[in-house]
Write a structure and sequence with these properties.
The complex is a heterodimer. In chain A, 40% of the residues lie in helices and 23% in strands. Chain A is of the alpha/beta class. Chain A has two domains: 178 residues, 3-Layer(aba) Sandwich (Rossmann fold); 68 residues. Chain A has a six-stranded mixed beta sheet, sandwiched between helices. Chain A has a three-stranded antiparallel beta sheet with strand order 2-1-4, with helices on one face. In chain A, helix 3 runs parallel beside helix 5, helix 4 packs across helix 5 and helix 6 packs antiparallel against helix 9. Chain B contains eleven helices and no strands. Helix content of chain B is 85%, strand content 0%. Chain B has a single domain, classed as MetI-like fold. In chain B, helix 6 packs antiparallel against helix 8. The longest helix of chain B is centred in the last third of the chain and has 39 residues. Chain B is elongated. Classes of the chains: A alpha/beta, B mainly alpha.
């Protein structure tokens, strides 16, 4: 399905990095009678960037938490491929949710610390990923000293530091202003193109979904029924010339950088 | 420093001058309220006795307070470990707080005898609850997404406690400690009324001797002790939280 012309380059790396997720008849009930998600079937391919759209309260976050295995479905199955092999899932929340008593470096290194990685190694990895999101000059600063956009970038770095094969984002940039948000969208897309992990991105914003994702599903208001499941033609420049698209991204970044200053 | 010290000093000086005037002019009887100058003189005259008493009360309240801090935090951690434990034991913590200290103090003498142990026990009983209550509420209000994050990366409950829940509760722990610092001094004085020693004893004997100036001097020292303890906690809180907590940054 994914082997469209424009994606050929990315898909090769995706096979190595991404995880396929398969939901079968998943059902989740709250307070014994409120059915949030009812018999949902959904296949997410390895290396896919899936946007999940839908009205508030349609179960988007519940879905994401179940895929992250933070909560169990009441019935049905969620399967991962490759299974058995330990792969890492990362989660980005709507707000940055950093530990205020840790500086930027220690926040970004936290997942590796919890997974038992040695300090020198995890700091090195955290530094590398912070460089990717442009925060190398802020390593020693504390969350209270950062702007909202910077905090969100630390949060993104924290999610990426484990080199996840599955990245789950729950309306991650919704609280940010338009310009910062766009800036981060561009950054996220570049990271995805470079790393080829599977991304599931919950959002309210149709334009954000269209800009980022190569597939979008729209959930119905109740029961999490899939109203629409659509492969997205990425914006034209992106489809024809990946390079042109990247250049566009760089130019936009340049412009946005100029606006910020 | 000047800005924080000067404003509260103005009413103090003003009040002292007015009190001095009222007593000297005979509006207030000197055997009910002593002139500030008399209190000051009593402080100079009985300085050795008062300093020794202050030292004893400081020791009693400080040890009691430290015990409260340590035990209070430990109890809060235990209570937070499961909802069942919390439901079973937290009501007793509340009940414990409502038992009037004055009524329990004689019991403490029976258990611990006349001496500093009773004073410490009394300071402890008076000051432990705010630490428990505030620490517990701090631990329980840990940001749910952060708990998810720790779960996602396989952190054990113990790691989550030390790397997330306790540090996240620190601002509330300090709130509890601030309240409990003042209570520890009160508890120590109450203990001294019954068990003897320290400023509590000085107040008791001075009262029977009709030395109202000395009573005031001892009370003043006890208040200053509470204030000093409070200030120390504030300083500690500021040093710990200044880089990350909004309430500290605003100050």
């Amino acid at each position: 399905m994914l082997q469209e012309v424009g994606h050929a380059r990315r898909v090769t790396s995706a096979i190595a990095r991404g995880v396929a997720v398969q939901l079968k008849g998943v059902r989740r009930v709250f307070d014994s009678n409120h059915v949030v998600i009812d018999r949902m079937d959904l296949d997410v391919d390895a290396g896919e960037f899936l946007a999940v759209l839908g009205p508030s309260g349609c179960g988007k976050s519940t879905l994401l938490r179940m895929i992250a295995r933070l909560s169990e479905p009441d019935s049905g199955q969620i399967r991962f491929e490759p299974n058995g092999a330990r792969f890492e899932t990362s989660f980005v929340f709507q707000d940055a949710h950093l530990l205020p008593w840790r500086n930027v470096l220690a926040n970004a290194a936290l997942p590796l610390e919890l997974m038992g990685e040695a300090k020198s190694k995890r700091d090195e990895k955290a530094r590398a990923v912070l460089e990717q999101v442009g925060l190398l000059e802020a390593l020693d600063r504390y969350p209270a000293e950062l702007s909202g956009g910077m905090r969100m970038r630390v949060s993104l770095a924290r999610a990426l530091v484990t080199e996840p094969r599955l990245l789950l984002l729950d309306e991650p940039f919704a609280a940010l202003d338009e310009i910062t948000r766009f800036h981060l969208d561009v950054q996220l897309r570049e990271l995805w193109q470079r790393r080829g992990m599977t991304v599931i991105f919950v959002t309210h914003s149709v334009s954000e979904a269209a800009f980022l994702a190569n597939r979008a599903v729209v959930l119905a208001r109740s029961g999490g029924a899939i109203k629409l499941d659509r492969r997205l033609e990425l914006p034209t420049v992106r489809n024809n010339e990946l390079r042109a698209d990247l250049r566009l991204g760089q130019e936009m970044r340049l412009l946005l950088g100029a606006i910020e200053k | 420093m000047k800005k924080t010290l000067l404003p509260p000093l103005i009413p103090f000086v003003l009040l002292t001058v007015i009190a001095e005037f009222l007593v000297r002019a005979g509006f207030v009887r000197a055997y009910l309220v002593p002139a500030p100058s008399a209190v000051f003189r009593a402080m100079i005259d009985s300085r050795v006795e008062l300093l020794q008493a202050l030292f004893a009360t400081s020791a009693g309240s400080l040890v009691g307070f430290v015990m409260s801090a340590l035990t209070g935090i430990a109890i809060a951690v235990l209570l937070s470990s499961s909802r069942g434990v919390q439901r079973a034991f937290y009501p007793y913590a509340i009940f414990f707080q409502t038992v009037p200290l004055i009524a329990v103090a004689p019991l403490l003498v029976i258990w611990f005898g006349f001496g500093i142990q009773t004073v410490i026990a009394s300071a402890f009983v008076a000051s432990v609850f705010p630490v428990i209550a505030n620490t517990l509420s701090g631990i329980l209000s840990t940001d749910p997404p952060l708990r998810d994050l720790f779960k996602l990366y396989g952190a054990s409950p113990l790691v989550t406690l030390f790397k997330l829940r306790l540090p996240a509760a620190l601002p509330q722990v300090f709130t509890g400690l601030r309240v409990s610092a003042g209570l520890a001094v009160i508890g120590a004085i109450v203990g001294e009324f019954i068990a003897g020693g320290g400023l509590g004893s000085v107040v008791e004997t001075a009262r029977t001797q009709q030395r109202i100036d000395k009573v005031f001097a001892a009370v003043l020292l006890a208040s200053l002790l509470g204030l000093a303890l409070f200030g120390f906690i504030n300083l500690l809180s500021h040093l710990t939280l200044r880089r990350w907590h909004a309430s500290e940054q605003a100050q």
